[in-house]
Amino acid sequence: METVHLYQARWWTGWFNSPGSYSVGRHYGRLANSRLWNGMFPGPNEEPTVYIGLDGKTGPQYVASQSCKDQRAVTVEGRWTRPNKITIVETQDIRFKGTDTEPSLTICARDGFHKHIAFFPIAASVVTCILCAWDDDWYCFSLILLGIIANGISCVVMGSASIVLQSVAPSKTAPPGDGMLMDGNHVVVILGKEKDVAAITQGKFHLDYKPWVRWRIGREKRRRVVGDGINIRRWLGKQDVENGQKVERDEDAETIDEYAAIGLCSLLLVLQFVTQLLLIPQGTLFGQIMFLASFAASWAYNLFLASMDKGYLQEELLIKALGLSDDYMKTYKLGTRTTAAVFACLALQPDCDHGEWEKKGFKPQEIIQQFIPNDTRVWTVWREQVLGQMKSHTPALGSLKLEACGDRVAVLSANDRDLLRDLLSDACTAYQQHMVLQARRRGVSMPNSVKLETGTRDSGV
Questions:
Q1: Contact at 8 Å (CB) between 433 and 426?
Q2: How buried is residue 452: exposed, middle or buried, by Cβ count under 10 Å (0-12/13-18/19+)?
Q3: Closest of 216, 149, 191, 183 to residue 62, by C-alpha
Q4: Four-residue CA torsion sign, 189, 192, 193, 195
Q5: How far, in Å, CA of 391 to CA of 354, rounded?
Q6: Regarding predicted confidence, which is higher, 152 or 459?
Q7: pLDDT tens-digit map of 274-288
Q8: What pTM value is reported for the model?
């Protein structure tokens, strides 16, 4: 049931006698939200998206500069201590639907061979059902048929929802939404418009059920005046006017989704379990064997479905819906944290003079400190040299030499000077790889001297 929404036509492939109907019915019965269903299936009432597991996970920290999928990485040669990965994602223009305040995008379920595998348990249930009828075992025939109908109807109802990506509406004057998703040693740099970046960083999956499944009801908040002007507020679902009492309609009425159709399916699954438990001993030995055979085929199919990685399937659907092919996502493996910090900062740098950085909200020093919060003398000098090189906008890397630090290195010990030399070398490696990346984007061939300096190679990681 948890993956029925991720594949096309999967909701029509549940017509087989499946074990575990009691557990499924009790589990999904709590989605039904009314006094009747809460009494039959006690527990918290959560949204289907959270309950089924399509949403609710906490993602990596997002660090905005102006406000994944495993793939082959480009290994950048240089000094190696603790490797870091930087994935640069160039978002595409997303055409949202819905209102301006609540933009949404319908996610198309993926097509695969899984729906064809469902014919195995379906055929097993149908064949065993026919064999029971041929043997005149109408008890087992009816019980297998009951399991086919109950599980089939439940899959149709619970799987009838479409997956919708709900995003947030950015301000019309919002700057580009470039930023980073930081997850340990893997950092994803996201480039693009605010509305496209927000779909990744703030978007949520939502299951959009048909109106006949939601079955919305209204709960109105009423004010009842009792005795000496004592006001009592409570939620009421129907008209509740009594003689001698003053009842006023409150304006902040609430509309909720009852999901009565899901509650009925859950009740049907529980009744299937009880009926099969009580009546299967009435069948013949052959009919009982056929009943268990249908269960075995369904169990094998359910075991296959349970082996799927839901997180990977959701990631594939999201990447496809956002148009993020491998041409717009590139991963680089860098040898040190300092190289990764400079490379990510350069990827986020806006194409303007450094005097306009503050106006555009670009703060390179804060970005570097997200990677390396050290504040010693060596790191301070290193950050100043890197920022000076970024402000110069020159291809020459003279600011990243130890001699360019001037008198500031005089107070450093020999070990600190060696460390600063290594850190500046890491920054040079990041700069050289960034120049290669910029040249590829512009379709310009790099000079031979620069190619020799970059020392990069493509390899599978």
A1: no
A2: exposed
A3: 183
A4: negative
A5: 6
A6: 152
A7: 999 999 999 999 999
A8: 0.69
